[in-house]
Amino acid sequence: MSSAIPINDKIGFGTMSLSWIPNPKPIKESAATIEYVTSKYGVKYLNAGEFYGADDINLKIIKEFLDTTSQPTNEFIISIKGGLDLATFKISGTKESISKSIENCASYFAPIGDSKRPKILYEIARVDPNVPYADTISYIHDYVKSGHIDGISLSEVSAKSIATAAEIAPISCVEVEFSFITQDIVTNGVLKECSSRDIAIVAYSPLGRGLLTNYAVENSDTFLKKIPEGDMRLHFDRFAPENFDSNLKYMKKLYEFAQKKNTSLESLSLSWFAAVSQSSTIEGLGKLPKIVPIPSGSTPQRIDSNFGHLIELSPSDLQEIQEIISSYTVQGYRYNEHAEGTLFQ
């Protein structure tokens, strides 16, 4: 049986915002952004998506980066979400759909056996309610055994689905939304299940899609107005004015703590992951698994802001942060009521 691919990064890099936006930058420019973050900060884990934009643009960006970098490409881990039809926005975990998706994703990389080939993880973006999850994972695992991909990641799954998948094949990581403003996995069993199986957590949107930043707090009067037309956040509940205003009290409390530590809210948010990863700091869960946040950034300035200012947090710091987390109830769905049924399945 194959083994899980270990993820050693303290912080990975999410590439969705390079391509799944109203006006993506040219492919070469976005590839240069990946070159910047990987070469300067030693990032080896990249999170990508077959459907992160039209015409496989995200995969083309990854390919351009791998084709042009002078870094050893076989040291990278590329995790790719697939299985979603952009035309219908429906997930499909059938054998036909999985085969089509994996073969397309694999076509953007060096051939099987090539020494320059990175490690490739594949994850179906959501659980297809019409196909048994064990079957979907077995279809993906067939491509691990054939060498088309190197491992399996899971996305937006319940503790039950994690257990089901782990019985079929080694699971390298579970990608879920996790941040100060999204703590669902602490209470719904997902973090506990991953802890018990030592499966890494990949935390997407670790900065709350921009809510957990100095900019959001310091410019709260205009923050929502400056979100560009076509930005998907405009469809998410937490960016509705009434929810934003309510959650701002919580964001300000975290911001004030960051100021006390002479850092930014975004740096505090990311430093927290480094402090709790593989620790026993969350009561009742034992030793936590590896937790790897995947912030993004489309400019060197934003990347430096996110990656360049991590701080050490003491046990008393973590206790104070936990008291802040516990004292607020975040308002609004992560996405919206329509999408809620597709999460943690």
From TrEMBL:
SUPFAM superfamilies: NAD(P)-linked oxidoreductase (SSF51430)
The protein's name: Pyridoxal reductase
Entries under PANTHER family matching the protein: AFLATOXIN B1 ALDEHYDE REDUCTASE (PTHR43625), PYRIDOXAL REDUCTASE-RELATED (PTHR43625:SF78)
Signal peptide: none
Keywords: Oxidoreductase
Record's keyword annotation contains Transmembrane: no
Alphabetized Pfam families for the sequence: Aldo_ket_red
Entry annotated with the keyword Oxidoreductase: yes
Domain NADP-dependent oxidoreductase: 10-325
